Amino acid sequence: MSVSINVDVQQRAELRSDRRPMPQRTPQLNETFVIDDSEPEGSRMGTGFAIDTSGIWLTAAHVTRRCLRVGLIQDGDVRPVRRVTQSLRDDVTLLSGALNAPDALPVSTAEPGPGTIAYHMGFPEGEPAVITSQYLGSTVIRHQNHNESQLVWAEGRRMPEFDGELGGASGGPVVSANGEVVGVISASTPRRGRILTVAPDALTSIIAAGRVAPRRMTPVSIRNAQHALDRFTRYLQSGVIREVYCDVE
Predict the structure, then answer these.
(1) Where is the segment annotated Disordered (predicted)?
(2) Which of 247, 18, 25, 213 is nearest to 107 (CA)?
(3) Is 3 among the domain residues?
(4) N or C: which end of the chain has fewer CB within 10 A?
């Protein structure tokens, strides 16, 4: 039986100026999260990552929602995305016709097992960072018009250390120790140290809906937190992970 608990859940991109049921193989957490779907006014920033070298990227749907134009940041400039395929039930968006990348992240087709260690990569408050976490189980996200199944992670170490919120990391990849993406950052509960992410089956569904066929990349395993930070730095330098810009004006 699921118990509804209203908690401080934050699901937002960083302001520029300032689903389907989960397979029952992992623990179903006995709680429900409620998300305010209203977006802050003004252009905003999130995180995106390449899943193919030919300009195919993923980010969070709430980063691209109600945007007139969407682009990726390259050397301080906004490079436009030609096509945006946004899920209506999961917090994930497929970007195609975007910047090419020299490498890409492989997307897992399987959900993580209980206790899985993973690394959340993105731009919280506009600054690059990696957050370690441990997988707890799945939960139900209550939106205004529908419910969504997501994965819940217990937040661990932040690298570099910071005390701010995770806004701006939305859309970033959740990379497991075997080097595969097992989720997309969706929301966080700062008071409880939880991070909510889109499940792997939602990622494969949006890829299919976008009618793209990313080439399967060879995953690169991650040994520990420092190795994850080193890997993230390489992704930043090569342009595999970038900031996403939403223009609402």
Answers:
(1) 1-25
(2) 213
(3) no
(4) N
